[in-house]
């Protein structure tokens, strides 16, 4: 009997050692995967201007969507004041009969990006950002977001300033929220 017990314990000991991976082996595999993923992200240019431009377009589309929901829920009128390199959210104050900025400073686009917009098929000439503060009077929105759920019909282009750069479109027919669409890439933007 003692030989049989010895055979069982040595067989189970061998099975226990070869049955899985050690913590060190798993950590080495995770480090290798992390390095490979990092190289792939850098190699594809996912952190370059094209990715940042897409993020800016998604941020603006999301902001318009949130404002449309808040306008209906709060029964308030909102607007977006656009310039070539920035945008700012405004809220209509019925007591003073003026548009007031919700943030102190407009959201600045990266220096290599710019906005252009068409309302009712007409291209608007957007002012260059001047850093005007929220306290200054005279801010008027180009895009309206009404408490009825309607938006100004618009077609907005967000693009790289360089001639062969990427450009994205956001557009709305006045009833649907804008979606980001690829406008075309004439050159490499990463």
From TrEMBL:
Alphabetical keyword list: Cell inner membrane, Cell membrane, Membrane, Methylation, Transmembrane, Transmembrane helix
Domain of life: Bacteria
Membrane topology: Single-pass membrane protein
Record flagged with keyword Membrane: yes
Transmembrane segments: 21-42
Family recorded in the similarity comment: Belongs to the GSP H family.
Protein's UniProt name: Type II secretion system protein H
UniProt organism field: Pseudomonas benzenivorans
């Amino acid at each position: 009997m003692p030989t049989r017990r010895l055979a069982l314990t040595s067989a189970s000991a061998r099975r226990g050692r070869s049955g899985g991976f050690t913590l060190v082996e798993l950590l080495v595999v995770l480090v290798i995967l992390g390095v490979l993923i990092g190289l792939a992200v850098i190699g594809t240019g996912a952190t370059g201007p094209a990715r940042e431009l897409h993020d800016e377009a998604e941020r603006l589309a999301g902001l318009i969507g949130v404002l449309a929901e808040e306008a209906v829920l709060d029964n308030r009128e909102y607007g977006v004041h656009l310039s070539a390199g920035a945008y700012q959210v405004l809220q209509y104050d019925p007591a003073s009969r003026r548009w007031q900025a919700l943030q102190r400073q407009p959201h600045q686009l990266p220096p290599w990006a710019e906005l252009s917009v068409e309302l009712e098929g007409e291209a608007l000439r957007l002012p260059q950002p001047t850093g005007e503060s929220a306290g200054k009077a005279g801010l008027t929105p180009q895009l309206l977001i009404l408490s009825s759920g309607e938006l100004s019909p618009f077609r907005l282009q967000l693009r790289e300033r360089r001639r062969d750069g990427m450009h994205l479109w956001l557009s709305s027919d006045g009833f649907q929220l804008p979606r980001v669409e690829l406008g075309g890439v004439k050159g490499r933007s990463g």
